[in-house]
Write a structure and sequence with these properties.
Length: about 375
């Protein structure tokens, strides 16, 4: 273990635990993280850091330069998340994740390595995906890699996530009295119901990695009125973006067929950009694994487990990334119990350990030109592009 680095981590640990608990006590959902962003920025400014906000026009985003030099051997982005879930607070643990990134950044302020490190605040992960727009605007192009830590009920040195695409489906029919003249109507809710049945039948004919799940958002206003409008919202996930796009097209065909069968009209749109699959760098994850072992954190076989989807995957399409997970609860993420555990002892311990892992991984990479070259070569081979 790097004792000097751990000491720097511990110097800011209590302050970042207070930050975490404060964010957890006042959760703000995606796109509304005004108080949360200001709490983080206020802490950074107390350390004398100049903070740019917003970044690439994304509300409640920020960026600050933690360390710089004239001729860096490495440029790194530490990514910060801090949005909450509707009605469930920080059941995804972003208050802990964001606090980990802040503490890691503070621990690197006085380092003597020839590196450039920026801390980038990325809001709206759970819904709209601010990182997708930041990637489109070239925010991450200048960095050699990006790193952050997520929270879970397992320790992992890296996480692979799935692509996700969304689809809003609106069926339009014709209202009529459901008892006296139903033949005059065209039932939009029937269109939605048939759409879901068609998607269920489609499941046999897509590859095993494809997932399709959705909800009915609108189904009519009264039982004695044939519904004139009904709406559904669906997620389609998969291992690769190309396969996910093909599955989306098949789902759209299901909607069109349901509209024909029910004599209704259908309109479809995707509300948000796709989240691409996260492809963690093997080089980075190996360095992370060593640093986790130094802290006596058990990884086991957990790296084989995939998580859901995240806009962090879009960053992995332009630069190498790694996103380990740390255990803070026995419960699954996105549950009420997990939301309760984000202020517990395990969460506070994870803030210290996670900050050390991020900072130590950056310093380890900075000391090895061979590792940097291997990381870039690996990325080039996967994406078929020069870096």
């Amino acid at each position: 273990m790097d004792e000097k680095l751990m000491q720097r981590v511990k110097e800011g640990w209590k302050e970042c635990c207070i930050l975490n608990d404060s964010i957890a006590d006042e959760p703000e959902i995606s796109g509304e993280e005004e108080k949360t962003c200001k709490k983080i920025v206020s802490l950074l400014e107390r350390y004398g850091l100049k903070v740019e906000m917003p970044v690439a026009g994304q509300p409640w985003s920020f960026r600050t330069q933690i360390h710089s030099c004239a001729d860096p051997v490495l440029r790194v982005a530490i990514v910060t998340e801090y949005d909450a879930l509707p009605e469930m607070g920080h059941a995804c643990g972003h208050c802990v994740s964001g606090s980990i990134s802040v503490l890691a950044a503070l621990a690197l302020m006085e380092c003597t390595y020839p590196i450039c490190v920026d801390l980038i605040g990325t809001p709206d992960e759970e819904l709209r995906g601010a990182k997708t727009y930041m990637v489109q605007n070239g925010v991450f192009d200048q960095y050699d890699f990006a790193i952050m830590i997520h929270l879970d009920n397992k320790n992992r040195s890296a996480v692979k996530t799935l692509c996700i695409m969304d689809l809003k489906v609106d069926f339009f029919g014709k209202s009529s009295h459901a008892a006296s003249a139903p033949w005059e109507g065209r039932n939009a809710l029937n269109g939605v119901q048939l759409f879901f049945h068609a998607v269920d039948m489609l499941r046999q004919h897509v590859t095993p990695d494809i997932m399709m799940h959705g909800i009915i958002q609108e189904g009519g206003t009264a039982a004695n009125i044939v519904p004139e409008k009904a709406s559904a919202y669906m997620y389609i996930r998969g291992d690769k973006l190309t396969g996910t796009k093909r599955a989306l097209e098949m789902v759209q065909d299901c909607a069109r067929g349901a509209a024909i069968a029910t004599q209704t009209e259908v309109q479809m749109e995707s509300l948000y950009p796709p989240y691409q699959e996260t492809v963690p760098s093997r080089v980075l994850s190996d360095v992370v694994a060593k640093n986790m072992e130094d802290l006596h954190l058990d990884i086991g076989d957990n790296n084989a487990i995939s998580m859901g989807s995240t806009d962090f995957g879009n960053i992995s399409s332009v630069i190498p990334v790694v996103c380990p997970t740390l255990k803070i609860s026995e419960a699954d993420i996105h549950t009420a119990q997990f939301a309760m555990d984000v202020k517990g002892d395990l969460a506070h311990e994870a803030i210290c350990n996670g900050a050390y892992i991020i900072a130590k991984t950056i310093l380890d990479m900075a000391q090895s030109k061979d590792l940097i070259a291997e990381m870039k070569k690996e990325f080039k081979m996967y994406y078929g592009k020069c870096v």
